[in-house]
């Protein structure tokens, strides 16, 4: 299976739930079997009902892993990912003794105290809990990133490299071929974009996001949600002392590079060896 097929398999609620439930059933069976052989080796009594009760530890993975994976798909920050993983481990270890207490109170002659079961859970299941939630986080994050950012094909790379011009329309709807080298910058003008060419301006029916995907990233780069500039048309830049930059183009147009784009844009400025004002 490809990364995308695996990711969408886990993304499908019913398929992933079925796989998770089957895995937990295997763990519960193995847990009961281990308890049985341990009592045989210790020459002690084996109680199937109690072994089944304490094996409810594995059942909690079904809802909690689903919640964890749902939150992981909604975040991109490593700090949040670590927080989610730690929170799931904490919830599991604290809910487990409460579940054992409740089930034993409802269906058993003896009720198992919360603290006693909590200490048992830390001793018997802490490492397993950490490994399962941490592994789930890593696997889902890797699969999500590979699906959202697939490697470029040779055709896509060639298309970007080869794109040296584009077709635009003037006021008379005449099709004109302009050189991308002579484009100063693109600006958002919903539902169009304005192409600021060295000779004149053109309206183009496309979004900045879609155009950015087609252009060579070594030549054109976003500096703002509303602007994408031609790096070769920059003559200077100046810090605004707040994380933003003023970018001056060859026609003396000054544009602001917002701080959210500066972290990607600044290394490109350094590469061009531009001189600050």
From TrEMBL:
Residues 166-271 form the HTH LytTR-type domain. The keyword Thylakoid does not apply. The keyword Isomerase does not apply. InterPro entries: LytR-like, LytTR_DNA-bd_dom. Pfam families: LytTR. It comes from the Bacteria. Keywords: Kinase, Membrane, Transferase, Transmembrane, Transmembrane helix. The chain crosses the membrane at residues 18-39, 45-66, 78-102, 122-143. One of its GO terms (molecular function) is kinase activity. This is Histidine kinase. It comes from Chryseobacterium angstadtii. The lineage of its organism: Bacteria, Pseudomonadati, Bacteroidota, Flavobacteriia, Flavobacteriales.
């Amino acid at each position: 299976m490809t990364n995308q097929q695996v990711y969408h398999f886990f993304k499908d609620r019913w398929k992933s739930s079925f796989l998770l439930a089957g895995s937990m059933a295997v763990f519960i069976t193995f847990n009961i079997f281990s308890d049985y052989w341990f009592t045989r080796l210790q020459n002690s009594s084996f109680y199937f009902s109690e072994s089944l009760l304490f094996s409810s530890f594995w059942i909690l993975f079904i809802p909690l892993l689903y919640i964890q994976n749902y939150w992981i798909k909604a975040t991109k920050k490593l700090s949040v990912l670590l927080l989610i993983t730690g929170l799931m481990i904490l919830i599991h270890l604290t809910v487990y003794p409460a579940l054992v207490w409740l089930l034993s109170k409802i269906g058993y002659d003896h009720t198992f105290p919360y603290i006693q079961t909590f200490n048992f859970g830390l001793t018997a299941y802490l490492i397993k809990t950490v490994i399962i939630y941490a592994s789930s986080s890593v696997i889902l994050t890797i699969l999500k990133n590979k699906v959202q950012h697939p490697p470029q094909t040779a055709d896509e790379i060639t298309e970007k490299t080869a794109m040296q011009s584009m077709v635009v329309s003037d006021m008379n709807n005449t099709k004109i071929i302009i050189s991308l080298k002579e484009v100063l910058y693109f600006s958002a003008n919903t539902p169009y974009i304005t192409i600021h060419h060295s000779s004149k301006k053109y309206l183009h029916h496309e979004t900045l996001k879609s155009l950015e995907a087609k252009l060579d990233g070594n030549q054109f780069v976003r500096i703002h949600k509303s602007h994408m500039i031609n790096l070769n048309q920059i003559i200077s830049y100046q810090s605004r002392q707040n994380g933003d930059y003023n970018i001056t183009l060859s026609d003396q147009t000054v544009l602001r590079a917002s701080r959210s784009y500066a972290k990607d844009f600044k290394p490109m400025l350094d590469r061009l060896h531009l001189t600050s004002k």
